[in-house]
């Protein structure tokens, strides 16, 4: 058989690799859009190179400032995209549009991080990039920094970390090791997992967007080697994991979806966080009748708009 056609690994709906080394990313990795000024909303986006050694980049979003005072500052949200550590991009149409909408609704500055992807750059590459991006943002608090308007307009006492799916996993891990001040954490359909099935992970009659068997294989694929499925980075509730009392922020919003196979992990995370001795406030928002990342697949539906409104409220509170 032609090795160019022979599949080595298939993790639907994210990625397919072939025995000749070819990689086929299946979910939102070929619809890149350039930064722009959106005349309808007034949102300006700009791409920046954070680290030339690793080609770490980000897309910055600034809302329309015409209604703001000349010295008014805005909260800063670092956003980490989904894609199982191996797919998607901060520059894809779906994330450009989602983060731009968030900036409009919440009146925040957003830094959407384009971290390195597996399998070319296995974990912990994405975690290293995420930490480097947070360090880069924090550097603007002390002076003009690499992007003067970010230093001028960013309120660095109000920095948030946010992400969906694998991006939410990254955001959690950054909050556990954060050296910079973080006010809040938003985890949308977070990718947490473990060796033991819980709740809706078992005996599904319906076919969810993500399947448990695929998620079992995704974590070691992202590392490029055998790795424990109860590693605290993927299972923060595992026995022996660092206490969630050390989470480096004061507010957390966890968003789950009723039909998502990851739903019960998100619920368990909230419960464990409350029981850990952590002194912050955690809120769980669950969307009925929806599956994983429905807000990206159908951003104009009523439930996606309701979720967006709640995210905006969290950043404004």
Automatic annotation (TrEMBL):
Active-site residue list: 165
Source organism, top-level taxon: Eukaryota
InterPro entries the record matches: AB_hydrolase_3 (IPR013094), AB_hydrolase_fold (IPR029058), Carboxylest/Gibb_receptor (IPR050466), Lipase_GDXG_put_SER_AS (IPR033140)
Pfam families, sorted: Abhydrolase_3
Residue ranges annotated for the Alpha/beta hydrolase fold-3 domain, each copy included: 77-295
A GO MF term: hydrolase activity
Name of the featured protein: Probable carboxylesterase 2
Species for this entry: Phoenix dactylifera (Date palm)
